[in-house]
């Protein structure tokens, strides 16, 4: 009986000591995107409401933009899992930058929930990049698209907002695909 108590006490002390030896940040930085496999309906509804308001505003202003920035000849499931994560991270960076731009009060209000959701998703993705593929180099397909995105950021500022806002559901679909990992088809 004494031996069993001593063994339990030893296990408790060793377990506590190991827990203290592992930095808490290391535990928090693991890659867990499972919550993005199935997006919550109220998040999707908030994005839809914001997108519709933006489209109405564009129609009223008569502004026309080429929104083919997000057009690709390949689909997200064709990419490797690390490429998918890099793709979504770039898309989220752009979407968050656009949603953070000054806007009319009503649009600013409608942007708050999607902005918070996308910002959290980006932070979760960054944890994945840091832990799973810190030195991953993008495939040729993705590298070409990332270069096009960078050029568009530098040259098409006026239409960038329209393109990013109108394609938020594609970004969310890509996020879901990254979360599904090898199961995304």
UniProtKB/TrEMBL annotation:
Secreted as UniProt keyword: yes
One GO CC term, this protein: extracellular space
GO biological process: cell surface receptor signaling pathway via JAK-STAT; defense response to virus; innate immune response; positive regulation of immune response
InterPro entries per record: IFN-lambda_sf, INF_lambda
Protein's cellular compartments: Secreted
GO molecular function: cytokine activity
Top-level lineage group: Eukaryota
Signal sequence annotation: 1-19
Protein keywords: Antiviral defense, Cytokine, Secreted, Signal
Signal listed as a keyword: yes
One Pfam family cited in the UniProt record for this chain: IL28A
PANTHER family documented for this protein: INTERFERON LAMBDA-2-RELATED (PTHR31943:SF1), INTERLEUKIN-28 AND 29 (PTHR31943)
Family: Belongs to the lambda interferon family.
Name of the protein this chain belongs to: Interferon lambda-3-like
Organism: Strigops habroptila
Record lineage: Eukaryota, Metazoa, Chordata, Craniata, Vertebrata
Gene (name only): LOC115608500
């Amino acid at each position: 009986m004494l031996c069993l108590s001593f063994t339990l006490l030893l296990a408790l002390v060793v377990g506590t000591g190991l827990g203290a030896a592992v930095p808490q940040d290391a535990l928090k930085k693991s890659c867990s995107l499972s919550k993005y496999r199935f997006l919550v309906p109220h998040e999707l509804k908030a994005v839809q409401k914001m997108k519709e308001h933006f489209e109405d505003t564009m129609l009223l202003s008569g502004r026309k933009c080429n929104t083919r920035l997000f057009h690709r000849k390949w689909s997200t499931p064709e990419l490797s899992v690390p490429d998918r994560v890099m793709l979504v991270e770039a898309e989220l960076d752009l979407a968050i930058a656009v949603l953070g731009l000054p806007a009319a009060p009503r649009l600013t209000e409608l942007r708050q929930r999607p902005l918070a959701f996308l910002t959290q998703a980006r932070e979760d993705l960054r944890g994945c990049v840091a832990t799973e593929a810190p030195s991953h180099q993008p495939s040729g397909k993705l590298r070409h698209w990332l270069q096009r995105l960078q050029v568009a950021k530098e040259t098409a500022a006026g239409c960038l907002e329209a393109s990013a806002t109108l394609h938020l559901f594609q970004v969310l679909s890509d996020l879901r695909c990254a979360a599904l990992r090898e199961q995304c088809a």
